[in-house]
Structures are given as C-alpha cells and as structure tokens.
Amino acid sequence: MNRDNDKGKVLLKRSLIMAGVKAFLLLCLIGRLYYLQVYQADKFKTMADENRISTRLLIPQRGIIYDRNDVVLATNEQNFQALIVAEQTTDVQSTLDAFKKIMPLSEAEEERIKRDLKRNKSFVPIKVKDNLTWEQVSEIQLNAPELPGIIIDEGLNRYYPYGEKMAQVIGYVAAVSEKDVKDDPLLEVPGFKIGKSGLEKFLEHRLRGKGGILKLEVNAYGRVMKEIEETEGVAGEPIHLTLDARLQEKAYEAFGDESGAAVLLDVHSGEILAFVSTPAFDPNAFSRGLTHDEWQALVENEKSPLTNKAIQGQYSPGSVFKPLVALAGLESKMIKEDTRFFCAGKMLLGDHPFHCWKRAGHGYLNLEESLMHSCDIYFYETAMRVGIDKIADLARRFGLGKTVNIGLEHEKAGLIPDKEWKLRRFGEPWQMGESLISGIGQGYILVTPLQLATMTARLVNGGYEVTPTFFPVDEKAFRDIKKIEVSPRYLNIVKQGMFDVVNIPGGTAWGSRFDYNGMKMAGKTGSVQVRRISLKERQTGVIKQKDLPWKYRDHAIFIGYAPADNPKYAVAVLVEHGGGGSSVAAPIASKILKESLILDPVKSRPHF
Amino acid sequence: MYKPYETTFRGQRMTIKEKLMNISFWYVFFICLLAAIGVTMLYSAANGHWQPWAINQLLRFGVGLGVMIFFALIDIRIILRYSYLFYFFTLILLLVVEVTGHIGMGAQRWINFGFFKLQPSELMKIALVLVLARYFHSTQLQTIESTSGMIKPALLALIPAGLIIVQPDLGTGLMLIMTTTAIFFAVGVQMWKFVAVGITGIILAPIAWHFLHDYQKDRVLTFLNPERDPLGAGYHIIQSKIALGSGGVFGKGFLKGTQTHLNFLPEKHTDFIFTMLSEELGMIGAVCVILINFCIIAYGYSFAFKSSSYFGKLVAIGLTTNYFLYVFINTAMVLGLIPVVGIPLPLISYGGTVMLSVMASFGILLSVHINRDVTVGKE
Questions:
Q1: Angle at the Cα of A289 from the Cα atoms of A288 and A294, rounded to 5 degrees
Q2: Which DSSP helix (H) or strand (E) runs through A77?
C-alpha cells in the first residue's frame, strides 16, 4: 500500500512536469507566431504580393516613320490572330479539325499547337494562326459555334508599305534574340520586336516608346483573377526623314534587275532624298518571320540583297575620281586650265606601259576636254606631277576615306592611300606608278557610293562641307556648314568639264543628256575593272563586256548633278558588274535627276 | 447530502441522468467552439461555400458528439476490462491493413467499409493508451523501475508503432512512440533510461535513415533547408510561412486570404488549415485557437488530477498527451518548426477518421471525469 502511495505521488509529480512542458511548448508556438506574423510580417506581406500580383508590360505603339512629305514608310498594322483556349472546348482536336476546314494548317503548325497546349495550363491561349485577313476573321466569327475555344485577338505588326524599295534604309524589326542587350524590361515580353537593322535599329530608343504596366492578380497556376491597376505607356516618337518616297521608288525601279546602289542628295544641306541598294529584301517578311528557305535564298543570292551597297560596298572610283585629280592639279599649280597633254593611247613610265581606255589615243587635250573624254593619259600626267599626298589631301576634304556615321550599320570608310599609309601598311615606299593609276581612280583607292554622292555635292554646291543625313537639317545646322578650302574658280573649271561630259557630243554620257525646261544634267562616268587585263588580251583585243561572265564585268559608276547651271541635286550611281559607266550607270542617274527636277522636293524647304 | 453533479455514493451505480449531469460543460464548450472555428475555416477554404467540406465536417462533428457521449457514459471499469481485447482487435486490424496494402501494391492505411474508411492506426492511438494504463494500473512501482517490467509495455507499443511506420506512416508511428514515452515518463520510469535510449537512438539514427523512404528523407532534408527545393516539397513550407507572416496581427479578413484563395497554399483544408486561419484571422485568431486547445488540454489534466483511480489518471494523461501531440505537431509543422509529417489539426482539419477518434478519446476523458470517484480494482 505504501508503494502504491509512492506510485501515485510519482505520477502526480511527473504529470505536473509534463503539463508544464506542454504549456511551455504551446507558448513556443505563440512565440513563433509572433516572430512570423509581427516581426517578419512585412517581409512576408511583400512575398505574398509578389506571389499574387503579376505585372505585365504592355507593348507601346512603335513610332511611325514618315518621309519628307509625310508619306508613311513604316507603320503598325493590326494583326489578327486566332487563339485556342483548351479549357473552353471539350475536344481540342475537333475544334482544330473544324478550323482546318476554314483555313488549312500545315502539319508542322498543328504539331506546334499541340505541343504548346501540352506545355501550358488549359486556360492559356495558344496561337493557332496569325496575320489573318479580314475575310478570314469574319469567316471564323461566322463559324464560331463550330469553333468552341477559338478566340480572335488583335495585335500590332510592323508594316513597311514600300517593302524592299526602302528595306536598306528603314531596316526591319524582329523578335529579340539572345545577343540583344536587355536594357529595357520590354525586351523580355514575349512577342516584342526590336529594330534589327537600318534606321529601325539606329532609332530604336526613340521609336520604342515606354511600356505600360498592367498589374493583375493571379492564382498559383497563373490564371488571371482580376485587374488591379493599369498604367498607360507612351507611344514611340514619330520620325520624319528627308527621303522622298517617290524619288526613292523611281530610283529603285531605275535599276531594274541590276545590282547596285544610288544616293541622291540635296547639295546644299546634305539631306538624303533617295538611298537605294539593289536588290533588297522584303522587310515585311522579316518582321513576320522568315522561313528557312526564304533566308537561304537571300544568303545564297550572288547579288547579295542583304548587303547595303551604298555604305558597305567599297569600290575603286575609276574615272569619277578624275575631277578630284584635276582639282588637285589646279590647286597645286601643276596644271592650268589650258594645260595640254598628248594622248597616244599609252605612255611609258620607265619600262612600264600605262594605257588609255582609248587605244587609238585622244591626241592633244586640255583639262576640260580630258574630263569630257575621260582621257586616262591626261590624268596619269597630272597625278605624276601632283603626287599622291596632295591628291589624298584633297580627296579627304571632299569626304572620301572616312565614314559619315550616317546611322546605318557596317558603314565602311573606304580608303584614300598616301605615302605614309603605304609604308605603314606594306612597309614599302610609294611607287610613282601607283600615283599614276590613282590618277584614274584605280589602285588602292576605295570609295562607297555614299561617299561619291557626298563628294559630288561638295564639288557643285560652291565648296560647302555638307554631310549626308536622313534627318531634316534645320536653319542653325544649315548655317553651320563649313566651307572647304578650295578656290571657286577651280571648281567652276571642273564643273565645266562635267557639263561637257553630258552635254557635248562625244562626251562619255552624251547619250544620257536631258533638257527639262532648260535644266540640264552634268556628271562624270566611270568604269572599274574588276579583273586584270593581261598583256596577251590587250594584243588579241580586249573581250567585250557583254561577252564576259557577270562577275567579271566592270563596275559602272556615274556621279551627276542637276540643274547644271545652278546645282540642287547630286547623285551617285553604282552598278555592280554593269559594264560601262556611260552605258549603264549614266542612264539611271539621268532618270533619277530628271525626276528630282520634275518633283523638286527641296523647293518646299523654307528659305533660311 | 446528495449532490447530483457529484458521484457521492461510492460503488453505487450512477444513473444515465446523473452521468449526463456530470459531463463537464466547459470542456464540451471548448470542443464545440474549436469545431465551429473548423467548420468556418472550411467554409472559407471552399471560397465561401458549404460544399464540399464545411457541411460534411459539420455532420461528422454531429456524429462525433454522439460518439463522445456514448463513450462518456461507459463505466470506466468496463473500459479497463476490455482494454486488452480492444488493443488486440485493433492490432489485428492493423495487420489486415498491412497485408491488403501489400496485395494492393501500395501504401494503404485504411479498411474500406464503403460508407466509412476505418484507419486502424487512429484507433491504436486510443487502444495503446488504454492498454498501457491498464498494465501500469496493476503494476508495482518496483516492477516499473525494473528493466524486465518494462519489456511488456515496450513491446505493446513498439509492435503497432512498427507496423504503422512500415505502412508507411512515419508521423503516426512516431506519435505513438511519443505518447508511449510520455506514459512511461508519467508512471515513473527512471530518467537515466530515457537518456540511455535517447543516446542509443542518436547512434542508430544514421542506420534508421537508411531505411527511410526517399520521400521521407526528402521531407526531413527539405525541412532543414526549404530553399533546397522551392518548387517541390519545400514549396509547402515556404508558402505556408508566407501565408502566415503576411496575415500579420489582424489577418487579411475572413475569405480574404490571398495565399489560400489563389491556391498558393497547398492542403489548405487539411494539414495546412491552421496556416489559412492565421492568414485570414491573423495572430489574434491563431493565438485564440492555441488558447482553446490549451484549455482542452488543461481540462484533460484536471480530470486526471481529480480521478481517484490510477487507471483513470493515466488514461486521462495519455489521451490528453495524444491530443496535445496532434495540436503541437500540426501547428509546429505549418509554422516551419518541424518537418512536414502529415498530421492534421484535430477538430479543424477536414477529415473523418481523426475527428471520430479524437471525439472518442474526449468521450473516454469525460468518462474518467464522471467516474472520478469510482474505485477501480486491480483484478
């Protein structure tokens, strides 16, 4: 009995201890509640909001691009797309089958749809087909009862009304890729597109605008429960360019099937009126998304439609370089207006013969006549006397040998060689013969069509250092254009020569002359060999251009301006492997300049 | 003097009316209060609908009240007499579940009676308390303090615990062992024995670890570092803490818990219902629930202290401890203090078996109270 009492006492004692432990443990729970719900409440409130609030960026409307006359060059078009929401239909397959009766779906498309459906929750809309036409949209809406789960959604697609005619200037937009710098959360938004080339890329930040913010309450599966708030975005800035869509179109069409480039400038301001590189690509296809075959065709085309030849193509200028050599000769007083050289068809420097394009020779010529006939011997003689450094110095003043930084990608600087360059590049001294061939724009010299247009404008605008630009030049910038150090008298001599090229019978571009209300064109032709003519070939007779494979034909170049007596427009035309400057390039330039005079886009400029 | 609410006359059989009059009003009140909170939270868990949970829970609680009163009216001596029978019956059910479970190629914890799924492990929680209470009721302190005297009760506990753990239901199995430990402690097993077993346990833990199922290992590891697997197992703990913490002092309001209603919180109507409550009703609501449970446990202890029989005391302590373990493990689990083990919060979590077994144990506790002055022989 005694032990039983002990047993009872032990039980009492031990159970009291246990009760105490239990009370303590419950107190711990309360302590923990305090820690979580009071001490850390703010942290967890934030986390709960992060869970529940889904922030969506609303894609702003991209800025519209206009030409100088407010013609739309790049805009946003409604893009209707058909989406399917799995949970709104009992049978996805039968809905898709019904859809296929209205619009065919390729096997690949159907596979993609099914894959997307599997990967996403059943309330997530999956794209079935986009870029629907109005007719297709209305047909889907008419058949809505047979298409449960199909909804029509509208978005915006970038659209380029001028297609490939503007492709190399405007560029295109496309989906953001891994390589793009993610400087804006908008770039993470699915379906967002950014400028990938051309001015679309250069002006990306102005065109993009600011994304709106939509705050949504979502559940754990991502389903939207309600809208919390919406902050409106800012549409992209509209951009006005100096291009004239009509001239651009004309210039592009003037090339026909030829591969080449043309740049048309307002000689006084440097504003670019037309900027063509042919053939080009369809930027609408890029913003829609290219198929593999389309891409392959572009890459494999030997006329390289993806290259912007106006700034990326570097060519020997050939005879169009001669006006600069003439100027250099005049400036260095090595020749005068009436200096005559005799052309016998070839000349010797040491043992080495230098040929004129005209084998029979031109006889005695003065400067003006040598430009008109594009006599090579005259410019060998001149270059030999002037020397390369003075020619190079002059060429640089006229915009050759360096980039303009016009805003388009991969702009090339070209090359204006001099003695120091040769030594640095090859470790060898400059040879006199190299001066000679530089005198006719061959050798190391490389220029881009844009540089040629710049050079032409500077030659004919009274010697002002205009810089080509796509953006309107305002009064201040106009007044700030510097003068080049060159005598106007010399410029007039060269201009006279260039007038003769077109307007005197026997001039190399006589066939391309025009007279529009008394306004005429002046210019200079050029043909650049892309292959070496061997001694043997010279003896047996040079092969005719049209008998050569396309890739071995000469590049045809023409620089021109109009009106000849009071220049307003300057153009540079390059036709890759076109044959001759007079036969291929000059007619194109003539069409462009005549059209410029007819439309006269610059006249609407307010007079500063 | 005859007082109707006291069983004054020793040995004299009480009438049913007398027994009913002796049911502790406040004890039942707290139980009903908690159940009411539970039904309310289930109503919220269904986004403000009685279906599918709240209405069922209410019906079950009604049945549970009946079960409780039924057990309350049973004479404690009858409970004593049939405790071994009840224990072995439950053990056989456990074996049946084990065997059919193996045949069914999966973890099965219940016997399906069609209208009712009986979970023998829940019954065992009561049966073990009763059988241990009976054993120690008729044992000398010397026997308790001897090692050999503890072999039988240890086996009584370890056999069902082992069966439950291999089901596999680690949580319930461990709960059974903890209840047993608490009873061993209460009856006066020397402290050094607990220490010795504890040290042995620590040494054997790595071996036991080897035998754990992958998902059980996962739970322990994830508990130790929830960020280990933020989308998988750790997701529950992280989301639970976010829900709780974001509730703050006053909560987000009834039906307004974002974590729960937007489905970030898993198992919101079962194991994680306390989280939901804390999110919507805040710390105030959560502390209220803990305090009500505290009262229920305190009443359990007062029944033990008031009972004149050793058997009654031990049954009350054992069942109360069992209830305490439910409450503590579930709450500590959702608060991120212990691993997620799948123990529901009794009276609040949705679930029939636990509701009925807890109500039955409340009934037995009431019986202990009603029969507090009944002399229980040693047989």
A1: 115
A2: strand A72-84
The answer to whether the CB of A564 falls within 8 A of the CB of A536 is: no
User: Nearest CA to A158 among A181, A178, A182, A131?
Assistant: A131
Contacts of residues A200-205 at CB distance under 8 Å and 24 or more positions apart, as own/partner, are: A200/A65, A200/A74, A200/A158, A200/A170, A200/A171, A200/A172, A200/A173, A201/A171, A201/A409, A202/A171, A202/A407, A202/A408, A202/A409, A203/A63, A203/A65, A203/A239, A203/A407
Residue bearing the bigger pLDDT, B53 or B4: B53
For the record, the structure tokens of A457 come out as: 């404008």
Residue B14 buriedness (CB in 10 A; 0-12 / 13-18 / 19+): buried
Number of independent structural domains in chain B: 1
- Distance between CA atoms of residues B309 and B254, nearest Å: 46
Give the mean pLDDT of B348-360.
Answer: 91
**What are the pLDDT digits (tens) for A374-403?**
999 999 999 999 999 999 999 999 999 999
Q: Which of B239, B278, B301 sits opposite A37 (nearest CB)?
A: B278
Token output for B72: 């309350």
User: Is residue B180 included in any domain, yes or no?
Assistant: yes
B165 against A30, higher pLDDT: A30
CB of B351 within 8 A of CB of B270?
A: yes
Q: Tell whether A11 lies on the interface with B, counting CB pairs under 8 A.
A: yes
CATH code given to domain A56-240: 3.90.1310.10
Residue with tokens 């198992």: B267
Cβ–Cβ gap A47/B140 under 8 Å: no
CB contacts of B243 in chain A (<8 Å) are: 44, 48
Strands A522-528 and A224-231: unpaired
Q: What is the pLDDT of residues A536-549, one digit of tens each?
A: 776 777 777 777 88
Smallest Cα distance from A252 to chain B, Å: 58
The region of weakest confidence among A251-255, A471-475, A481-485, B98-102 is: B98-102
Decide which of A101 and A420 is more confident.
Answer: A420
3-state secondary structure of B285: helix
Residue B41 lies in a domain: yes
The answer to whether the Cβ–Cβ distance between B244 and A51 falls below 8 Å is no
Q: B219-252 pLDDT, tens per residue?
A: 777 666 656 666 666 788 888 999 999 999 999 9
CB A150 within 8 A of CB A83: yes
Phi-psi region of A5 (alpha: psi -120 to 50; beta: other; left: phi over 0): alpha
Kind of pairing, strands A346-349 and A352-355? Answer: antiparallel
Per-domain boundaries in chain A: 56-240, 245-299+307-604
- ipTM score: 0.92
Chain B interface includes A37 (CB < 8 A): yes
| Site from A6, A22, A34 to mutate, B interface, most B CB atoms within 10 angstroms | A22
Domain that holds residue B121: 17-370
* Cis? peptide before A488, omega within 30° of 0: no
User: Is there a contact between A69 and A244 (Cβ–Cβ < 8 Å)?
Assistant: yes
According to DSSP, the residues that pair with A557 across neighbouring strands are A526, A574
User: Which among B246, B310, B327 is the nearest to A47, CB-wise?
Assistant: B246
- Chain-centre distance for alpha carbon A34: 63
Structural domain contains residue B2: no
**B341-354 average pLDDT score:** 89
Whether a cis peptide bond, with omega within 30° of 0, leads into A563 is yes
Q: Does domain A245-299+307-604 have CATH number 3.40.50.300?
A: no
Mind spelling out the 3-state secondary structure of A305-374? CCCCHHHHCCECCHHHHHHHHHHHHHHCCCCCCCCCEEECCEEEECCEEEECCCCCCCEEECHHHHHHHC
For A89, half-sphere exposure in the C-beta direction (CA atoms, 13 angstrom radius) is 25
Closest residue to B245, CB basis, from A10, A19, A41? A41
Residues 6+ apart with CB under 8 A from A428: A422
Tell me, yes or no, whether B289 lies in a domain.
yes
